[in-house]
């Protein structure tokens, strides 16, 4: 439980969870949304993964991150994000990315 509270204590990590609300993203796609170094983003992602809030999957040369949907904390966080003015635009962006990916032709 301490790992979860540590993970949620950071605004950047809560924003990462909001970005992952509707779709998975690569570490680079996540980093592009923040004004911090890629190593700093990697550290945040490692903390979230260690807390069981996100999972990673290597696909080719990229590592994709996704929410662990079965985690109760993510369910509660999703509820809070729906009423949090900071998270709403991030969740909309996540939904837009998911929508674009569904309509793109598969290679």
TrEMBL record:
PANTHER family: TRANSCRIPTIONAL REGULATOR, ARSR FAMILY, TRANSCRIPTIONAL REPRESSOR SDPR. It holds the Pfam family HTH_5. The keyword Iron does not apply. This is ArsR family transcriptional regulator. InterPro entries: ArsR-like_HTH, HTH_ArsR_DNA-bd_dom, HTH_MetalResp_TranReg, WH-like_DNA-bd_sf, WH_DNA-bd_sf. Keywords: DNA-binding, Transcription, Transcription regulation. GO terms for molecular function: DNA binding; DNA-binding transcription factor activity. It comes from the Bacteria. CDD domains: HTH_ARSR (cd00090). SMART domains: HTH_ARSR.
């Amino acid at each position: 439980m301490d790992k979860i509270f540590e993970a949620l204590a950071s605004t950047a990590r809560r924003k990462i969870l909001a970005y992952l609300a509707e779709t998975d993203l690569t570490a680079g796609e996540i980093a592009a949304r923040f004004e911090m170094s890629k190593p700093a983003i990697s550290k945040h992602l490692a903390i979230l993964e260690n807390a069981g809030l996100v999972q990673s999957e290597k696909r080719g040369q990229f590592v994709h991150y996704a929410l662990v949907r079965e985690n109760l904390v993510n369910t509660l966080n999703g509820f809070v994000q729906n009423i949090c003015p900071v998270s709403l635009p991030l969740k909309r962006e996540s939904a837009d990315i998911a929508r674009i990916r569904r309509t793109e032709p598969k290679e």
